[in-house]
Amino acid sequence: MDVTQKKTGDPRGIIIQVFFIFAVTAAAIKSGERLLEAVNLAQYFRSFTAVLLIGIPFIFIRWTDINGSILGFGRIRAKTDMRPALFIGLPVIALYAAAWIGYQYYYRNRQFIFHWDIALILVVVEQLCLVSLPEELFFRGFLQGLLTPPDPDRQSHFKAFFTLPIIMPAILFAAAHFITEPKAFRLATVFPAMLFGWLRNRYHSIWPGVMIHAAANVAVFLLQNSFQ
User: Fold this and answer.
1) CA dihedral over 227, 96, 168, 140, signed as positive or negative
2) Which of 6, 7, 143, 165 has the fewest CB neighbours in a 10 Å radius?
3) CA dist., res. 158 & res. 194, Å (int)
4) Range 38-63 average pLDDT
């Protein structure tokens, strides 16, 4: 199967394939969750999900002739991967933190007391290895990679957020979070997912998104544990 012909000649087929892959993966995750709960091993659900999200893209690529470079999973490049993570991720996280603190302080009358302990190291490792990397590899690396044309326009302007390769994985990302935890606020994950997709498109790498994703989750953990 020639990936170039597939992407340029049958875009509708690619979309159907992406939906099918997502549906199978979501069903496997949900079934695994119920099975682990049934055998009292629910604490391993996050590890199980990470294995699936990492394994499925590589199995798919191994069984087809699609180039693995579509995953954007190369080595970390100091300038092109870490710089956008710092200069884009930090301001976004800082704004979110300021809004969260303001809401808790002024509207819920809760006092902010920064708190952390040695367990934070485990949280950082968990968020990086079991959450942000698997999710970015699957949604931005694999699904977005399948939807991206062979010679994409690395658009950096605002309109790029609403191109199919970015918006569709973002919607599926939000849907996955809602399926796992059926609460309306989980659908809001579509917005950071669009940012991660834009970074994937702009820098041809999932690493900026992985770093920002992990940092944002750690920031949420700290904020949730720093109010009394």
Assistant:
1) negative
2) 6
3) 11
4) 95
Token readout for 143 is 């699904």
In contact, 125 and 218? CB cutoff 8 Å:
no
**pLDDT tens-digit profile of 51-66?**
999 999 999 998 988 8
| Residues linked to residue 227 through DSSP beta bridges, in sequence order | 112
Which structure tokens are listed for 69?
A: 């470079």
For residue 96, what are its two tokens? 């979110």
